[in-house]
Amino acid sequence: AQKFGFPLVIRPSFTLGGSGASVVQDKESFDKLLQRGLEASPIHEVLIDKALLGWKEFELELLRDKNDNVIIICSIENMDPMGIHTGDSITVAPAMTLSDTAYQRMRDMAIKMMRSIGNFAGGCNVQFAMSPDEEEHLIAIEINPRVSRSSALASKATGYPIAKIAAKLAIGYHLDELKNQITKTTSALFEPTLDYVIVKIPRWNFDKFEGSERTIGLQMKSVGEVMAIGRSFQEALHKATQSLEIKRNGIGADGKGYTDYNIIIDKLVNPSWDRVFVIYDAIKIGMSLQKIHQLTKIDYWFLKQYESLYLIEKEISKHTLANLPKYLMLEAKQKGYGDRQIAHMLGCLESQVYKKRKELNIHRVYKLVDTCAAEFQAETPYYYSTFENNIQVNGQAFAENESIVSAKKKIVVLGSGPNRIGQGIEFDYCCVHGVLAAKECGYETIMINCNPETVSTDFDIADKLYFEPVFWEHIYDIIQHEKPEGVIVQLGGQTALKLAEKLDKYGIKIIGTSFKALDLAEDRGQFSKLLQKLKIPYPQFGTATSAEEALLIADKLDFPLLVRPSYVLGGQGMKIVINKDDLEKHVVHILKNIPNNVLLLDHYLDGAIEAEADAICDGEDVYIIGIMEHIEPCGIHSGDSNATLPPFNLGEFVLQQLRDHTVKIAKALKTVGLINIQFAIKDDVVYIIEANPRA
């Protein structure tokens, strides 16, 4: 530390996700952070580096066979500079601000590093730092001689299945012996070419941890990620922000940005999870690009892209829907703006913008991800959407749509979007099996998802993969294009369920449990009335839409009370309250985050045993797949509970009640598909907590 001087970076050996890593600014904090790093490392060893804060960060994905053939699959650039873990950075592929000479030097260094660590065949990931000045000094940060998180991203970005090829190389194949999996005619030794841009944005879950520090740094904090594909960086950035499901419609133009100068400065200086949006807000309040660059060290090229987005918003805001020129609407759509955002700028409805767009003949077209920039015929249908200027062909306007619609009967499966707490990979597992089952039945299957970490977004799972946000506008356009028999929403978690109402409203058939039944189970007040009708025991309850109503209900019911909002997953906003102050504070907090929600307040069954049943139903017959007993008492979320299958302590009398209730509820909801019901058992009486007619 004395030799290098501060700031320093401490990185523990043999750890993943940057655990235990830190930036040390002064000698007072050095001992404490060093100790933390040593404890995080399984071999009690740390690497101490000079901190290259503010340098640009790049990655290369390589493959090598035992004949020492090496190919570069793709270059990845982090929009965030050094000092933020690559798993928490917004990343772009191919690299945008890299000169060709620097790229060639980077390739040579990566290949040299790979060869120097031994003779192995397989995948490899190399990370570099580059000085932001004109000298373009390159420093290698680390090498991972294995597939990594970035390999999964690079696979989805290029359509080149890195792990599959790496496994074949490891068992002795050579790159020139293997075929490209997408074209089926070219060799795997061809480096992929990208004629599009991909943007990855991480998904954080800070809202689950009240009071947690929401800044990002050397330790990875994100729980999932989304990827978007566009013809330009701006389009891909917009599509990625629409995919996040954090109640934003994209970058800006949704009335949810910050306007306070001090908050914006603070979020730019201390990298926050929402900095991707804050940069736009900073430009909007008139901050110069020099100032933003000075605070964030983000390259000017990216900031210029943001600036041009703001200029188009400013231009559109001067018009009304009636006099908006076609070229401006097309430019906004090509830059990724959603109909909802354009409606916000013009002060009208999303549906009106959609109608106007159709009148102006501005339609989405779908392009192939084919590893070769359309040089060879691609066998694999892996698509993304974009907008194109029409070209004149034989006197007719024409935009090339590469997604050819077949005459087969089709089924759309909606994916579950980014991983987060309460909605993870288990929903993707259900989607994949749903797709495979529909395929077996002879349907053409169409998968819509935006998560690069999943199996459902592999190009060889569904007959057609649309790598698009699970966002209304994108889904509706795909459905209009493909005209499927129907859409399956029950496998994609809350992401897909939230779209059920709109699909129903637009007359698009929902396959499986109807929207009415899904809505009845999600609306806690209506569901409790159904239980009353079926004469099934449930805890005493009341429903409230305001803090005043909640306090009146509390007078009738005894504390402790369980407060639960409707239409949520993973226990979001649920809490056990023990007095009126607690109750009022919590209800106000929920309604601030989820306005117009119906809250269910029920008497909390203290000390009850929790159990759940999973069943499948075809509308008439119910088959119970399994009953699980939770080891933790009622009140611990089922996702955080240990459970045993089959149940351990429940007698036949209780189990029979569970079975009877499950059959009654599944039939009453006219379930077609899966259903999960949660129970609380107290004094041998089985109460219903909730039912989920979905995966």
Set out the fold topology.
Elements: E1 8-12, E2 22-24, H1 27-40, E3 46-50, E4 56-64, E5 70-78, E6 91-93, H2 100-116, E7 122-130, E8 138-144, H3 149-158, H4 162-170, E9 197-203, E10 224-230, H5 233-243, H6 261-269, H7 275-284, H8 289-296, H9 300-317, H10 326-334, H11 339-346, H12 350-359, E11 365-368, E12 382-386, E13 391-393, E14 396-398, E15 410-414, H13 425-440, E16 444-449, E17 464-467, H14 472-482, E18 486-488, H15 493-497, H16 500-505, E19 510-511, H17 515-522, H18 524-534, E20 541-544, H19 547-556, E21 561-565, E22 575-577, H20 580-593, E23 599-603, E24 609-618, E25 622-633, E26 643-644, H21 652-668, E27 672-682, E28 685-692
Parallel strand pairs: 12-17, 15-16, 15-18, 16-17, 18-19
Antiparallel strand pairs: 1-2, 1-3, 4-5, 4-7, 5-6, 6-9, 7-8, 9-10, 11-12, 13-14, 20-23, 21-22, 21-23, 24-25, 24-27, 25-26, 27-28
Helix pairs in contact: 6-7, 7-9, 8-9, 9-10, 11-12, 19-20
Mind explaining what this structure looks like?
This protein has a 7-stranded antiparallel β-sheet, with helices on both faces. The protein starts with 7 loop residues before the first strand and ends with a strand. The relative contact order is 0.07. Among the domains are: 43 residues, Dna Ligase, domain 1 (2-Layer Sandwich), CATH 3.30.1490.20; 139 residues, ATP-grasp fold, B domain (D-amino Acid Aminotransferase, Chain A, domain 1), CATH 3.30.470; 116 residues, Carbamoyl Phosphate Synthetase, Chain A, domain 4, CATH 1.10.1030.10; 64 residues, ATP-grasp fold, A domain (Dna Ligase, domain 1); 84 residues, 2-Layer Sandwich (D-amino Acid Aminotransferase, Chain A, domain 1). The mean pLDDT is 91. The protein is α+β, with helices and mostly antiparallel strands and 695 residues long.
